[in-house]
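User: Earlier you gave me the apo prediction for this protein. Now I'd like the version with pyridoxal-5'-phosphate bound, so I can compare the two side by side. Same sequence as before, with the ligand SMILES added.
Assistant: Got it. Here's the input I'm using:
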Amino acid sequence: MTKTELWVCQLATTVPNISGNKWLKLASALRKRSAKQGILSMGGAFSNHLAALAAAGKHYGFPTVGLVRTDKIDLTNPTLAQCLQNGMYLQPVDRSYYRQRHTSEFNQKLINCYPDYLIIPEGGSNEEGAKGVMALPLAQTPAGEASLLCCATASGGTIAGIIQRYPDIRVLGLAVVQDKTLIDKVNACLPINHNFSNWELTKASSAYGKVKAEVVAFCCELKPQISLEPIYTGKALYQLFELLEKKELAAGQRIAFFHTGGLQGLAGLYYRKLISETEYALLAADDNEEACTAV
Ligand SMILES: Cc1ncc(COP(=O)(O)O)c(C=O)c1O
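And here is the structure of the complex with pyridoxal-5'-phosphate:
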């Protein structure tokens, strides 16, 4: 039987909530920000990205603003409560207005309202964000160079960084959103007129944010070895195992999977009763901070 290797690359930082891809995607903005400038970004009410930005603002001492896709700021939402505790100013934005976030009018209004802020997009995904991810030596596993690189993909910045860093290695984005424009989103994070052809995206089996019982069970089963959550890393790794089981991915490869963090989201899942108290207690217990874990 041909042996397949799976290496999970997990990044730990000294600042809680800026783990995984968050630190990398924010790195360029943190460098680019001028001394007196704050950073503004946007996301959903349980956004890992907003949680990370708020934590970075508190740690480095700069102001942060989060536009939240919601009608009203729920102060008992654990992600938003944490953002507020870290000093982020939260502004609710209703869904229909939020949908206009890619337009120049939306952007201009933000510039007018927040002239002292550097504005970065949802998820921190743009060319700058992807450049930060290029710093990750994902292919270098303790056993040698990986032949396949994988990560959960939602707004595209993370995979765009991996694609550029390793143009000669195959990269598979495990989609966690059902978004027909995801390819365009990844391309928008790559340099204009690029000719990278080393990547592809899977199709997500369920909508973004949908919590499937089998994925939660999978996260619980793997917990002694690795900490996962069912919206990003758990959903993506589950998909990867399915592809291997169905032989849609060839056996015998050395796979490196980037653990993109997001464990702060577990509290929000429990808050919304999408996972049980027992599941929450298990999944959120002592996060594994090993740099690379073989499973
Ligand atoms: C935990 C986690 N994993 C993966 C992703 C997907 O990364 P990207 O949006 O860069 O595709 C995100 C979103 O940033 C995330 O929060």
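For your comparison, keep in mind: The chain has two domains: 5-17+127-294, 21-124.
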